[in-house]
Design a protein that fits this description.
Layout lengths: L1 E6 L10 H12 L4 E7 L5 E5 L2 E6 L9 H23 L4 E5 L4 H11 L3 E4 L4 H4 L6 H16 L2 E4 L2 H11 L6 E3 L7 H4 L5 H4 L8 E6 L8 H14 L3 E6 L5 H10 L6 E5 L3 H10 L2 E4 L8 H8 L3 E5 L2 H6 L7 E3 L4 H13 L1 H18 L2 H19 L3 H4 L1
Parallel strand pairs: 1-2, 1-5, 2-4, 5-6, 6-7, 7-8, 9-10, 9-12, 10-11, 12-13, 13-14
Antiparallel strand pairs: 3-4
Length: 396
């Protein structure tokens, strides 16, 4: 097959979790197919040829957008223009896969110009991210998400939670939605050793590290983790919270640590490289992801794959990945006392911590490997292509 992946982010441009998801499915699909990834570039156009994997980075038109929506529209027009050009020059694509609403317009233009089936993955919804629709921009984005689902032959979601959410918000029928979870490359962590000298950059040898990585936004719940830290320190005083990543809430979160008098027990690293991220997973004693909304939760899989005891809130995809006290720990979402109790339980009980870490690593490898995930995705593509050949519109 000749597969087109449309995404607004792709490594090294990483805004959220979509970037690594598209990277992994594209790399795995390219073992048996020709895969084109057309994505956004912040500066100039680049074409990368990796054999059966082609990556084309396209800048938006050099105009000054008036607002965020204009910015997205300019990006989509540039992506669609490039995709149609490549199709005419190098051969027609068999299928288009659009990731989230940000590339919806390009996906529809390519679908109708080339007469090929469109598949979309809804990684999260605007309704879910904001716990409802509260303004005109959010309403616009939610409408575009519905429109993308309507235009798609199949809508892929990564969890039962997201299936339920899309059925409810977009009035989708069950037969239009396919659940294909995100995956993890366990081998990425197998060659990473626990580096003591690296660990000492973040904590004393006597301290146990509690690690969080993610965007500093309300939905990720990092404010709840800081809120729980005084209670964690009451239960286990010799602990250190390391917070990696950045986002609009950084200054507010930083101020919280001073307000609670725990600034010496909380370290903000800012943005870290992939190598540092993997090393921190390896040296951390407990990883905590306190999201208030989480469609899937690939960070939990990364923590599990690295062999770190993982604590998550009981929401969305986390609730499906983690089995309490078996391959991780779950706390009541939004409840700082439940969060602190679970973290302290792991810090005090080495046997429990090692048990959930070992089972978590096993589950990450056996259930969520990218090889198995992309097999399911390729099977879905094949079924759609077979069905589309029966329709006159796609063959005219």
């Amino acid at each position: 097959m000749r597969i087109l992946q449309l995404t607004w982010e792709y490594p090294p441009r990483i805004i959220g979790g979509i970037s690594r998801v598209v990277e992994n499915i594209s790399q795995n699909l390219s073992k048996e197919n020709t895969v084109y990834v057309i994505t956004f570039s912040d500066d100039y156009e680049r074409y990368e040829d990796h054999g059966k994997l082609k990556i084309i980075r396209v800048p938006k038109y050099s105009l000054n957008p008036l607002n965020f929506v204009d910015y997205i529209m300019l990006m989509n027009m540039a992506l669609a223009e490039k995709a149609i050009y490549i199709s005419n020059k190098e051969g027609k694509f068999d299928i288009i896969h659009v990731h989230d609403w940000l590339c919806s317009f390009a996906g529809r233009m390519i679908k109708n110009s080339l007469r090929i089936p469109l598949v979309s993955t809804i990684h999260a919804t605007e309704y879910g991210r904001n716990n409802g629709i509260h303004n005109e921009l959010q309403n616009f984005i939610s409408n575009v998400e519905w429109w993308l689902c309507f235009e798609s032959w199949k809508v892929i979601v990564n969890s039962n939670f997201m299936k339920w959410e899309c059925e409810r918000i977009f009035n989708l029928t069950q037969d239009k939605i396919e659940i294909i979870p995100n995956g993890i490359n366990v081998e990425d962590f197998e060659d990473i050793e626990a580096d003591i000298s690296f660990r000492r950059r973040f904590a004393l040898d006597s301290e146990k590290i509690i690690f969080y990585i993610g965007r500093h936004v309300y939905e990720k719940g990092v404010q709840l983790l800081i809120d729980a830290m005084p209670h964690i320190l009451e239960g286990y005083s010799n602990s250190k919270l390391v917070i990696a990543g950045n986002g609009p809430m950084f200054h507010e979160l930083y101020s919280m640590t001073y307000r609670y008098g725990i600034n010496d027990k909380v370290l903000f690293t800012g943005f870290i490289s992939d190598e540092e991220r993997k090393k921190l997973f390896k040296v951390a004693d407990v990883c905590v992801f306190p999201s208030l909304y989480e469609p899937f939760g690939i960070v939990a899989l990364e923590s599990m794959a690295a062999g770190c005891a993982t604590v998550v809130s009981d929401v969305g995809g986390f609730n499906e990945i983690v089995r309490h006290a078996e391959n991780g720990m779950k706390f009541y979402s939004g409840n700082k006392y439940s969060l602190s109790d679970n973290v302290v339980a792991l810090l005090l009980n080495d046997q429990l911590r090692h048990k959930v870490a070992l089972q978590g690593k096993k589950d990450a490898k056996e259930v969520y490997s990218w090889g198995k995930i992309t097999e399911r995705l390729q099977k879905l593509y094949s079924e759609i292509l077979k069905e589309s050949k029966k329709m006159e519109w796609f063959n005219s």
